[in-house]
Structures
1.
Amino acid sequence: MSSTPVDIKDVRAASKRIHSWVHRTPVLTCQSLNNLAGRQLYFKAENLQKTGSFKVRGACNAVFLEKESNPDSSGVVTDSSGNHAQAVAYAAKCVGLDCTVVLPRGAPKVKCDAIRGYDAEIVFCEPTPISRKETCIRVSEETGKTIIQSSDNYSVIAGQGTIALELLEEVPDLDAIIVPTSGGGMLAGIGVTVHSIHPKCQVYAVEPVGKDLQRCLEAKQRLWPNPPLYLNTVADALRLQAIGYLSFPIICEYASHRVFTVTDDQMIEGMKLSFERMKQVVEAASGAGVYAAVNLMNQVQPTAHKVGVVLCGGNVDLDNLPWLTPTITY
Amino acid sequence: MSSTPVDIKDVRAASKRIHSWVHRTPVLTCQSLNNLAGRQLYFKAENLQKTGSFKVRGACNAVFLEKESNPDSSGVVTDSSGNHAQAVAYAAKCVGLDCTVVLPRGAPKVKCDAIRGYDAEIVFCEPTPISRKETCIRVSEETGKTIIQSSDNYSVIAGQGTIALELLEEVPDLDAIIVPTSGGGMLAGIGVTVHSIHPKCQVYAVEPVGKDLQRCLEAKQRLWPNPPLYLNTVADALRLQAIGYLSFPIICEYASHRVFTVTDDQMIEGMKLSFERMKQVVEAASGAGVYAAVNLMNQVQPTAHKVGVVLCGGNVDLDNLPWLTPTITY
């Protein structure tokens, strides 16, 4: 009997539902990073995933379920401006659903092009969190399209859990997995999966400075301001300060209450290590995981021998690599 | 009966000799590049190879053979300043041979560090081709160390042939393979291998402007000046103008006489495509292959359906990516 609304059966069902449409990404190893870390690191290369990030797993699961449960669906809408938007657009295209993405006015052309490349429609709104949310709800009400949230959605959480399913199939005896964390959908999905299959393995979040997840987990309380802030971080995939309402209780139950906190410079260092040693293009959020795996495990679980790291995405502006440009302030 | 001094048996023997010490690199595919090219592309990811380039295959074969044939060997020496130097240093360390690398004064610290990281000794010389050659010969005479040439060496050629052995095992029905070409060791090795296993597959060189390999192949003559020049190209792995003396006849026999010639801008475009679409860090020489596969196959073999491309290496100065910096002139 499961104590959370998402369990391993949902994750396995998600895996079956999405497997023809997403890559089973490779698990990469790198002797030089092992040497630096003093342990064996196993990198789940979601930077090589369809659409360039893990988000496509949860998006496909949620969108395909929408199509299954409602064959006459009017389509889907989302207000993510990041990897989740591309992922939802891709998922909708896979099953022939209409898709609208709400983007703030002034969103980079490269993002708009990628989204339109999957035949999704873009509706522009004011560049504020409230305008985005309101516009998304308005589109949904006017068109009947279902809103696909980026992490506060049980189907998305189950989809992200498939990362751990695959990783543990290839490396069944991991001692720990490090998960870059923003809204917490991936952390919750991986937590559920690991707890069921290999509960001895610790699941750690890695976060940017200012998120303070550890304090919330220790208190088992959402201590973030309402409305939550965007964090000032180089990792645009990690800007949400608060964990989602649905993810938070799952994370409290299944993730370690010890959290890795990294600065922008540390994320950038991890990102550059990935480029240099693994020859993998990854975004700063992935760099957070690399940095923690190489440098911070001793503080938390010094005896961990085999450590998994999710390289969560590879969508990088190659003309503005962060070790070559001053850190951007939002 | 073989008409060239390297045949498939040598390549298979090399594969057996080196396989515990080099990676069997993955063959990558990318839907978005397939769409651009209008055909199926199969990328042999030697950027993920030990030491960051394919050079380690030939270097291991040559150095291990030296150790086998002469257990009391005084070691090896090379005057390459590029990927071959690291590869020889790595190979020597694998079998416990002493290694000296002759480098021009002023060689980048990062290169020196990588070579010393494999316990090789560095001897500096003047930054001219003649001083390098002379210093290498002097070290060899004074120490008894065997010179390991970077491409003009049958054992190296056989080692590089293992790339095609692995690629054809995974994609047996390739119509063509595109090989970035400098001294020609890889092209010769791949030519020999493909001719023996799957002779219908065309083997194409891709070269920087100024090499003029096609004219030499058509004439079956070395038309390069003596001493040959270094080419002015962004791809430091492709600076040799002339094909080696041992490689040239093999290439005349087994490689297509149609050669792809690419400009610096085209190589850089191919390199950036690899970063962006495949999330693979590759050097400009690999970019030459990507560019040719995506844009130039129509000129030469428009019906080719499945095309292999060697991503020959991934050793890139991440602080000087060529699409962000003015092209360097040598």
2.
Amino acid sequence: MDAYADRLEAAITSKSSPLCVGLDPRLDKLPADVRAAAGGDPGKALLRFGLEVLDLVAPHAACVKPNLGFFEAFGLGGLAAYAGIVAGARTRGLLVIGDGKRGDLSTTAEAYAQAHLAPGGDFEVDALTVAPYMGADSLAPFVEVAAAHGKGLYVLVRTSNPGAADLQDLDVGGARVYERTAAMVRAVGERHRGRSGLSCVGAVVGATWPEQLRALRAALPTTPFLVPGYGAQGATAADTAAAHLAGGRGAVVNASRSVTFPTPKDPTTPWRAAVEAAARAAKEELDAARRRVV
Amino acid sequence: MDAYADRLEAAITSKSSPLCVGLDPRLDKLPADVRAAAGGDPGKALLRFGLEVLDLVAPHAACVKPNLGFFEAFGLGGLAAYAGIVAGARTRGLLVIGDGKRGDLSTTAEAYAQAHLAPGGDFEVDALTVAPYMGADSLAPFVEVAAAHGKGLYVLVRTSNPGAADLQDLDVGGARVYERTAAMVRAVGERHRGRSGLSCVGAVVGATWPEQLRALRAALPTTPFLVPGYGAQGATAADTAAAHLAGGRGAVVNASRSVTFPTPKDPTTPWRAAVEAAARAAKEELDAARRRVV
């Protein structure tokens, strides 16, 4: 299989879209017709909604990012829905980033990597988000499994929330903790680059921190970025431009609630039309921002 | 329900044991008879082994700590085994720490907390391990759910691996990152203390770092500790003494492989007898170390 970064770049180019649609389905926000058709079964409702959203956004998104937490919340039935959605994304030709923020040591890290990145598993996706607190040796087993199977990782570097500052911004003698995390990401990923020149080890960098985004982009010229914070969290399409390398390469921008639970100007808009329109609009403005990066 | 810390202290006292048995079942290491009885179904093998281990260690352990990664690796069938084991632990009167090292923001953090700490879910446990990189606001939803249901958390503060030093040891102007994490743990947990005086928000601190363990114990006098590193990872029972508060309170010490996959002196020892003996021996030496803390 081609390297993850190469497959993602091809998807961005062929769809003219750096949009990643995040699937964060809260049961109480699902459309009434979806809930009714599921007959009160949370897992069935999540699966039905997820597959419908995949159909609606597939023309506009380079990839999708289901968040494991929202499925895990409903136990085995919820995770069966997650498995159904990642399989459904594959048949629709959409790349999938499993947003699990997993992290552990040694054989446990390897077990998580097998769970999400090895071929054939229920939860197999194209890339997984991982947490860096335990250090480089905790990332290594993830990197090995990813590289072996043409898969990717996104390590949390600079998250989009206000509390990101608590640990990530601490000054460690002229640099910040998140910059040290970035250096670690670069070091563990350097050996594993695809034909595009981009590594299989990416970074999560929030668009809500424009200065840090710019500095990290410069410091990590071969690292794919996954950029949260656009849309409901407040960052604009213009803010996301700093995530891209020259030629508009190297980043996808996530939109979750603003696409899957949009607030259309005309509140009588049927939800499917509203989701499709929101995905299209996000794609268009994000791609315009991307193309301005020369 | 009583506060988690109170329930755990009661278990440590009534069993005369600060032992936490970690369940990290690797399929290729399971006893041949367990694998044969499961007929090649990985989930069934994990469940069968887990329930047998619960029976063997129940007299000796204050709690058990199944690691989600080893179950997630086998997809839905693996997680069904996890659900069966946590339910089995409950019926055996064993407290369960779900070792998931979860972490996310806002409603996603709340979703994970619901998944693992709210009553009635497939994955309901007594406490969950969580990762701190995203900051205090990422921990807050976990703390709220835990406090509301008499459940607990253990935040990664100082992990037991060599790479722990990469980020956790960085000098942030007279303190280390892990000390700042510790301060965050104390701050988010301070309001939620049980009758024992101990908080529902605990800390993971490796016994492989004796100096840091001692310093953190002094800095966190109301924080329950979950202490990995004893046994297969090299820390001794004597090393774990520093984890306890006066009176031998406030900590459980994890042993995984050294109990569940022991290497008995007589290699012909049946595996069940070997596991039982390893749990008993670990309990005895850990409790002796605990009782010396006055």
